[in-house]
Design a protein that fits this description.
The two termini are 61 Å apart. This protein folds into four domains: 406 residues, ANL, N-terminal domain (Rossmann fold, 3-Layer(aba) Sandwich), CATH 3.40.50; 101 residues, ANL, C-terminal domain (GMP Synthetase, Chain A, domain 3, 2-Layer Sandwich); 88 residues, Non-ribosomal Peptide Synthetase Peptidyl Carrier Protein, Chain A (Orthogonal Bundle); 253 residues, Alpha/Beta hydrolase fold, catalytic domain (Rossmann fold). The chain has 868 residues and is an alpha/beta fold. Strand 3, helix 4 and strand 4 form a beta-alpha-beta unit.
Amino acid sequence: MNQSSHSADATLHWSDQSHFPLDWNGPVGRPFHRFPDDAKSRPIADLLEAVVRRHPERIALMNADTSVTYAELWREVAGWAEFIAGATAPGDLVGIRATVSSTVPMAMLGCLAAGRPFLAIDPDYPPELVARVVDDARPALLLELDQPHVASRHWRPASLAPDAPACVVFTSGSTGQPKGIVNSQRNLLQRVSQSINAAHIGSDDRFLSLVSLSSIVGVRDLVTALLAGACICLLDTQKAGAREILRIIDERRISILFAFPALLRSVVESHQLRAGEHLRLVRVGGDTTLWSDIALLRNWMPSGALIQLVYAATEAPIMQWFVGQSAPEDDGRIPIGYPLAGNGLAIVDEHGAAARAGQAGELLVRSPYVALGTWTKGHCVADPMQVVGDCGMRIFRTGDLVRRRADGLFDRIGRQDRQVKIRGVRVELDGVEASIRRHAGVRDVAVLVRSDDGARLVAYVEPHDAAGDDLLGEVEAMMRRTVPPHMRPWRYYETPRVPRLPNSKLDGLALRSMDLAKSLQEESRPGRLAGTWIERDPIEIIVAHIWREVLGLALAAADDDFFDLGGDSLRAISMTVELEKTLGRELPMNLINQSPTFAAFCAILKENAPSVYSPLVVLKPGRGPTPLFFIHGVGGGVMELFGIGRKMHWPGAVIGIQARGLDGRDPPSDSVQAMSDEYYAAVKARQPQGPYLLCGYSFGGLVAFELARRMCERGDEVAFVGLLATLPPGHHSLRLWTWASYFCRQILKGMGSKKRGFESRERRALEGAPAAIRSVTASALAASIAYRPGKYGGALSVFEPVNRDLRLPSSAQLWRRHAAALKHYSLQGRHDDMLHGSNAEAAAALLTQCLEESLEASPPSARYAQAL
């Protein structure tokens, strides 16, 4: 947030808790000993000693070859505690190598009984990461676990204050910067309390937690099982395969299982048999869970077993819920749960203000159970901005983007640190991964962004054993059908294993290294820039080099399409300008529009004869008899129409109409009437008979209107006239007048100071644009100011951006007096981005629907004549 937590606490509305009890939809009828609220203020060692006294001979710990009773456990804990207290001072941190051994839990509990916080270090982490953790944490003592310790007769557990540090957990280090999070005993016991009281955990349960004891989840599950009097089974998931895990679940009669989603998928999918009837609960958390995961678990679990989703962070417990049998499966990702009691939750937008109801934003947690701070250089460092008032409340920014649903559940949309922008559109990498996982052949996937390739998504796909030979092709086809272009990866790679850390989270450093190696491998592959098909021809070498510079990626094949690979109007201008400098001759600005593939573009460049101007440019080929003619905006080119044109599902062709003069040789048309006459001849040559479908964007709407009028006067049947963000002359937006003022200065005074309010993106693009584009734009502006629309006897379809300038009247109101009938539609976005990114998808779908409806109800041209 941009303000302190004190001010945030004063201005935000904090939702205190869920309206549902912890065990709602869960094991409501199962008897158990409830964990009392007042126990959260007692030392963990005292609570454990009480359990030992109740049933000393019950099994507390099990691993591959050892079983330890509660009495034996307590003796070992006491020995470790007395040794640790004598070897360290109060407040010292104790380091423990968290191997899968019964000694590790005893040493961890011994630290708590000695009144010392502990740091469990996962030996499976990369050595460099372990070294950095130890250097940053600087524990006062590193325990050697092969040496037993026996307590004296007079030993008693130390008294540990509820808000004293209990354990330090370093984050995964996926970003390369591990951070030690300090959890208090109160924080830890809150997790224990909610786990026991939600799942009704009792002494007859056997708990298997497939996570490392170095994580807060591993510590939570260890203490939860022991304070409930249950048995916890220890298993090295890094060494045990899926069959071994399934065998342990069956032979040890595990009743409660916890695992991260990725591990559960690999374990359950590897075995066809169902779990035994003793498994009553599977707890899932730590990563994005999909509805397909729930279906997979339900097919494997015995009838009546429950699935509990746990949403928490190293810093705080946050939410949980039991997934019902009839939960809605309308999205690939599943809700993360209901808020836990004791937490205040708030959702804020990117400016730190409270998000509106139903709006997505970052989740904030205010609670006395939030972590104390961070551990660095041997000390706990509290964040003074996090403490709210005198009640011990602290605020934790989760970094997760969430949305609260009407039923009280929360949806997790993604991560702020995994939110990127692709061609100006925000994309959640978690969402892209969830979409790819919907394919049955995908076991795991990781998506990252190649920033050096112009912010392009790259997906690494781990296939199932039974996946088809063309898995990547199938995934790519599925993504083209189901998600907008900005969510589609530019490249898909198959990998035998997606790199993950021991806690199941993505190993960001390993993933980046793997992708860098892949990128370097591609750069040196024959057939690309150094391939035999390209190095013989100097034109192709030049174009390939500039292609790389403009698009930010190397050429892959001769049929690579400039616009399919992220090219847009600005990049097309840049490419043409760079080619003109290199080749030493002027080029038509519409050259890349006419021939967007590398091979075709090079072929045109090699032709010595100058190209002949044609106003028609095919945006999308089609097989139907009725094409849509789409007229350019104020700049005269059709590059900005490629996005919507290619996304339309209209069976006919979508043909753009571009202005005269873009090649710099012919003078531009000086009136709307002259343009309509010229375009009329081109349209009739392409389609001799009606019905005609016409559309225009911004200034192009004026030309489409005038063209429709003239067609009707001549007896042609016009079935559709669409005006996208078009205002009649006399009511132009401030934006249009800004353009006019700017271009007058450009033409008459040269490059001068910029008028305030002019869009910087367009200004930068046009300052470097050739004189031909500036000339065409100035002519179009002058033509629009002089144009006076008459009366059109047919129906107009007027499309307005939702985020229009509210200081101006609606264009539908203004056009109503110029037409016999009018239909009004709204499009997502603003005037300048309604045809880009995800907005283009929505615009294309609506425009296609309007065309279909117009042709079905197309009146004969005689009615148009009567109306006139």
